[in-house]
Amino acid sequence: MSFVVKGLSALAIAALALPVAVTPAVAEGERFVLVSHAPDSDSWWNTIKNAIALAGEQMDVTVEYRNPPTGDLADMARIIEQAAASNPQGIIATIADYDVLKGPLSDAVARGIPVITINSGTIEQSKEIGALLHVGQPEYDAGFGAGERAKAAGVTSFLCVNHYITNPASVERCQGFADALGVDLGNQMIDAGQDPGEIQSKVAAYLQTNPDTNGILTLGPTSAHPTIAALDANGKAGAIFFGTFDLSGEIATAIKADTINFAIDQQPFLQGYLPVVVLTNLSRYGVVPGNSINSGPGFITKDNIDLVEKFAGQYR
User: Fold this and answer.
1) Over the stretch 93-133, which tens digit does the pLDDT of each residue have?
2) Alpha carbon 76 to its chain's center
3) Which strands make up the sheet holding 90-94, listed edge to edge?
4) Measured between alpha carbons, how far is 232 from 234 in angstroms, rounded to an integer?
């Protein structure tokens, strides 16, 4: 009898204590700001916008997306400063140019605002800024992996269509590709700009001037779509080894048509979604992952395109 009474008493005490032990101290109304370097015309970022919208809904937080309309990095730096001045519970930002953005991002950290970097930049740069972690793909390694595939296919001379040459990460992609092939990058990388018509014209002109080109690398839909059009126009679609970064509906169609051999998927959805989840858990429970997160690279080919095509431009 004594044992039973003591056991019941212990259970009763535990039952009374349990709600206090497991009830989290949830801070309501968290607000985070994601600042990208992308101009308004870059549709690739729609996937990240979808990701932060879904994460915001699931986490019950507010996530604001801000960007320089023309892609001007000095404007981006000012947007980060304005975001920090508004005292959010966290800032998510790309490191499109370390020298331009390290100041405002480091200042945000100094104000006590948690910062997570995504997409552009490196883990080392993220650490130097004082960010919690970086979510993205190692750009040089991704370019090198693309170059290995091109080399195995016999590519010896290529064109890298760089539509955002002011972003050092874009150059790393082209450089990795060249290094894997064992050739100098040199003038095989062109500054394509952002205008689709100009990109198509520049690609067509390069291929006419350099007829021995047997490989092409584009760095995203902005440069891939006009390059597809250029190849369709000159009758070389499917005759030149063609790899690209990132995914879109048009790129998926070109993969299925054998115009594009592969697309490198850095999983932008994770770049938008995971930082919101991490920052929310940090704000509410004080927990954070101990390491940065590689969201890519993965390779999408004709063999696996059906698995991801229906989500292209939305979640992939």
Assistant:
1) 999 999 999 999 999 999 999 999 999 999 999 999 999 99
2) 17
3) 62-66, 31-35, 90-94, 115-118, 133-136, 293-294
4) 6
